[in-house]
Design brief:
- It is built from nine helices and eleven strands.
- The protein has about 325 residues and is an alpha/beta fold.
- It has two domains: about 230 residues, Spore Coat Polysaccharide Biosynthesis Protein SpsA, Chain A; about 55 residues, no CATH class.
- Strand 1, helix 2 and strand 2 form a beta-alpha-beta unit.
- Helix 5 crosses helix 6 and helix 7 runs parallel beside helix 9.
- It starts with a helix and ends with a strand.
- About 35% of the residues are buried.
Length: about 325
């Protein structure tokens, strides 16, 4: 009876709290428990008063119910929510439907926000009313020393350092486009996204589903700010640390990541009116290109073919016919 009474009291408090200024949302499928606990601890240590923002943990069809494993009672306005349709796109759509505030902050289960991230992010909302989607720097915390050969591929891991603020009101300007991790989003932007998703549900192809690695659903979401006359930005003073497990530094994973990223980029640009460009080339030219590729070091050659697989798969799914003699540009 005492447990029921406590739950009823908590429910009463939740229903009678003022509308929050911000909805902080973590979407997660089978998360690493220690990573998620660190992410929650970082949120607990935010300098922004907890009474002004809500916290929602979206359990995206995890094998074990996350509400039984992760306690959110430390936050006065937090709740668990389960989305059975697997995929980051569907989890984020559910988040948009659940949010009470007019501003969302997406945080991944392996993101450690600096203590002032929310406070400074809310300040940007007031300082930059013309910006509809914004984020900051994504730094890496590697679980093991990364091999030197991986450095040139860190961009695929979402590592984004900044030497200055960057903003734009044009799509396809990726330097100013925030990643999903640590992205603030105004309500008119996500309402527009929900509308275009109804018209083109294939946008779900862009988001990771379980172990299938695809990307760019966050860029598609951010570009919605430009669609409605706002802009996107990344601010240097907003800092987030992304935990990088050793598995993400392995060659096999990197190949899948590169293939999925290229696939997603082609699909995203197609959805936004920019079809892939394939140049005509003679048979001799194609043969010379193949000779050049075969002379590459083995690892670079594998990654080249990963890019090509991603491109071809995207063209196939989009029903874009490739010429027999062509070079992918």
């Amino acid at each position: 009876m005492q447990g029921l009474a406590r739950r009823l009291i908590r429910l009463y408090k939740l229903n009678n709290m003022p509308i929050p200024n911000l909805s902080v949302i973590i979407c997660s499928h089978n998360p690493n428990p220690s990573y998620l606990n660190e992410a929650l601890a970082a949120l607990r240590n935010q300098t922004q008063a907890k009474e002004g923002w809500e916290l929602i943990l979206i359990d995206n069809a995890s094998d074990t119910d996350l509400s039984k494993s992760f306690d959110l009672s430390w936050h006065p306005n937090a709740r668990h929510c389960r989305e059975e349709k697997l995929g980051i796109v569907f989890a984020r759509i559910r988040a948009m439907q659940e949010a009470k505030a007019d501003l969302i902050l997406f945080v991944d289960y392996d993101n450690i926000l600096n203590p002032d991230y929310i406070e400074k992010g809310l300040a940007k909302a007031k300082e930059w009313p013309i910006i509809g989607a914004w984020g900051g720097q994504l730094l890496a915390r590697f679980e093991c020393e990364p091999p030197e050969w991986t450095r040139q591929y860190w961009k695929y891991l979402g590592i984004r350092k900044l030497d200055r603020d960057k903003w734009s009101n044009l799509i396809h300007q990726y330097e100013s486009t925030p990643a999903g991790a640590g992205m603030f989003l105004r309500k008119p932007v996500w309402l527009h996204y929900l509308e275009i998703f109804k018209l083109e549900p294939k946008r779900a192809w862009l988001g990771t589903v379980g172990k299938t690695i695809t990307r760019c659903e966050d860029s598609d979401l951010a570009f919605c700010a430009c669609d409605i006359g706002l802009g996107t930005a990344r601010f240097k003073e907003l800092i987030l640390t992304h935990i990088m497990p050793k598995e993400r530094l392995q060659e096999d994973y990197m190949q899948k990541l590169i293939e999925g990223t290229v696939y997603s980029m082609v699909v995203l640009e197609s959805f936004r009116g920019k079809n892939p460009y394939v140049s005509k080339k003679s048979l001799i030219g194609i043969l010379l290109d193949r000779i050049s590729v075969m002379r590459l070091p083995e690892r670079q050659r594998k990654f080249f073919f990963a890019e090509k697989r991603g491109f071809k798969k995207a063209c196939k799914d989009l029903k874009i016919k490739l010429r027999r003699f062509a070079r992918i540009c």
